[in-house]
């Protein structure tokens, strides 16, 4: 099969740009699709495309641990105003016709699981799609932007049940509790690498802890394991406590800068049972029972101060690339306490029914098994309140990022509350009951995933 050029990838993503809050140009109308997969990209300044014509020259001289960017403006950005683009576009279909079992997206790439196998596509600047050329662990994937879903044959001998994507790296969780990683950054293997080939993180096998859940964002990752040693399948015992491990460049509540090249045990969560753990750019949020009282539940956040609210989007969201910083390296234990912990004793729902936990700018959102969704502002005296969905329709899916919150209802309608330039105002839209914007509709859509301003809805 002939591989597409990088310019074909540009053409694939350009129609997906949309800025709902702009007053310039006509307002796009929601579009109906027969395709069960759609993708969207709301960033007008997609830096991954701005150096599309310069990367080849840079790649000839840079080493695998060196990354930089050309600030030259992509002429495609100037020639195609965002107003003429439709709201959503059908995404590329898997070569396999099986059902999508799980999906995730990074800053400019996607991954989904079909029949236990992983398909990836999008930007492969740092090997996050995979070994397309299969010539080396690094350096062979430059300028390979992939449109058609690429089957990761390196994972063909294991069955994947869950995926998680950071900005430039991926985690895949097998049904035996093993975690595989690839891409760029601290991948949990004891060093910082730029590796397009998936490899298992042997740390969890060495300590005989099967992994039950994974999450990733930015340049760090989290894994939740059983606290009981085992070399076999995951222990389904609901009374067994968990252990939470973190690696990469995690958010540090005390403002310090440190990195963990191998998984480090989160000390403050030892003895807790983890119901949900989710990573976002500025904080790790964990819904858990208390070690001292397994019948009580709390929400804890390990967060760093976000950027100062500013009207300048370039100051608000600086460029991010795989991090290889000369900062202190820590080992073994993540000893920092949460920035804040909120008891869920008075929550208007059963915490055990939470199927999704999301963290936005100044708030958390939880989706329950019955389709109801609740929002908790982080810096106010307000308690949890129902997400203001039109007609109070039960939800199939929910996704939260720094810039936006999207909800997929039971009829396949995709709603959004968003503000790319002033993301701290999204929580006000939610708290004040502001009606969301309808992005599109398709009865086949059942799930939605998102990372910052990139997302995918599928069925």
TrEMBL record:
Keywords: Repeat. RCC repeats lie at residues 116-176, 177-227. The keyword Aminoacyl-tRNA synthetase does not apply. PROSITE patterns: RCC1_3. InterPro entries: RCC1/BLIP-II, Reg_chr_condens, Ub_ligase/GEF_domain. It comes from the Eukaryota. PANTHER family: OS09G0560450 PROTEIN (PTHR22870:SF408), REGULATOR OF CHROMOSOME CONDENSATION (PTHR22870). This is Uncharacterized protein. It comes from Dispira parvispora. The lineage of its organism: Eukaryota, Fungi, Fungi incertae sedis, Zoopagomycota, Kickxellomycotina.
């Amino acid at each position: 099969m002939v591989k597409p050029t990088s310019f074909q990838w540009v053409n694939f993503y350009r129609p997906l740009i949309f800025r709902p809050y702009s007053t310039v140009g006509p307002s796009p109308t929601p579009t109906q699709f027969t395709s069960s997969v759609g993708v969207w990209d709301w960033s007008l300044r997609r830096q991954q495309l701005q150096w599309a014509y310069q990367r080849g020259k840079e790649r000839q001289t840079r080493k695998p641990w060196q990354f930089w960017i050309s600030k030259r403006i992509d002429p495609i950005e100037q020639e195609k105003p965002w107003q003429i683009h439709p709201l959503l576009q059908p995404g590329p279909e898997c070569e396999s016709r099986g059902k999508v079992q799980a999906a995730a997206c990074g800053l400019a790439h996607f991954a989904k699981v079909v029949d236990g196998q992983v398909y990836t596509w999008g930007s492969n600047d740092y090997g996050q799609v995979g070994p397309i050329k299969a010539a080396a662990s690094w350096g062979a994937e430059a300028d390979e932007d992939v449109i058609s879903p690429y089957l990761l044959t390196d994972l063909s001998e294991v069955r994947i049940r869950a995926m998680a994507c950071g900005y430039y790296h991926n985690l895949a969780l097998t049904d035996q509790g093993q975690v595989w990683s690839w891409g760029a950054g601290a991948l949990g293997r004891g060093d910082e690498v730029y590796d397009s080939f998936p490899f298992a993180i042997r740390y969890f096998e060495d300590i005989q802890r099967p992994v039950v859940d994974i999450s990733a964002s930015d340049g760090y990752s989290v894994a939740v394991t059983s606290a009981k040693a085992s070399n076999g399948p995951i222990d389904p015992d609901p009374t067994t406590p968990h252990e939470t491990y973190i690696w990469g460049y995690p958010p540090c509540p005390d403002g310090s800068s440190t990195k963990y090249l191998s998984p480090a045990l989160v000390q403050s969560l030892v003895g807790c049972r983890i119901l949900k753990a989710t990573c976002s750019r500025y904080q790790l949020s964990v819904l858990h029972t208390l070690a001292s009282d397994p019948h009580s539940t709390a929400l804890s956040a390990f967060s760093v101060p976000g950027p100062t609210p500013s009207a300048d989007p370039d100051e608000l969201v600086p460029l991010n690339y795989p991090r290889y910083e000369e900062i202190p390296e820590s080992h073994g234990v993540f000893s920092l306490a949460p920035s804040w912990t909120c008891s869920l004793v008075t929550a208007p729902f059963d915490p055990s029914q939470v199927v999704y936990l999301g963290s936005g700018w100044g708030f958390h959102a939880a989706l329950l098994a019955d389709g109801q969704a609740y929002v908790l502002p982080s810096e106010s005296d307000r308690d949890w309140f129902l997400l203001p969905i039109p007609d109070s329709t039960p939800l199939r899916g929910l996704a939260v990022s720094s810039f936006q919150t999207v909800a997929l209802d039971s009829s396949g309608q995709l709603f959004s509350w968003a503000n790319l330039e002033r993301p701290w105002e999204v929580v006000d839209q939610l708290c004040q009951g502001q009606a969301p914007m309808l992005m599109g509709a398709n009865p086949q859509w059942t799930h939605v995933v998102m990372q910052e301003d990139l997302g995918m809805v599928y069925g």
